[in-house]
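DOMAIN: structural biology
WANTED: fold as tokens
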Amino acid sequence: MTRFAPLLGLWATACLAWAGLASPGLAAELPEYQLKAAFLFNFALFTDWPADTGTTITLCVIEGGGFRNELEEFQGQAVGTRRFVVQHVPDAESTQGCQLVFLPKAPAATMARSMRHLANRQALLLVGDSPEAAQAGVGINMAINDSHVSFDVNLKTVQEAGLTLSSKLLRLARHVR
């Protein structure tokens, strides 16, 4: 249990920061990408993955998505009976074998091209980081509002991918569509 204490502490801090309950000093200690890294790991943790998913939950971060160091502490951590693996890939075409894909802020044309490639893939949770991503059909879209990380859920997109999000996660969402 002590192995997971730092992760649980970071998730709790991220949730408090999201809700605006963390102290100003604590919020300043956790940069945006560290908070978003904790959210990404917990999106994986609070998703029901199909039984045939395999032994890993692989997060692919598309180039330009940052997180070079912030996600390292989650590498190899348990997600249920699976292990969390992080890969940095150049583009959406390089995401075969990924169960979770992070689409960074990008111009609308780049976002549309990525979404065309990723559309209709089963057991794939798409997470975006811009308003265009929500409209393009990602399952979860993160945003920064008043220095707090928040997220919206497109439940239809998640369900069409054959996934189920925990009610605990859905309660933290700013909007569930």
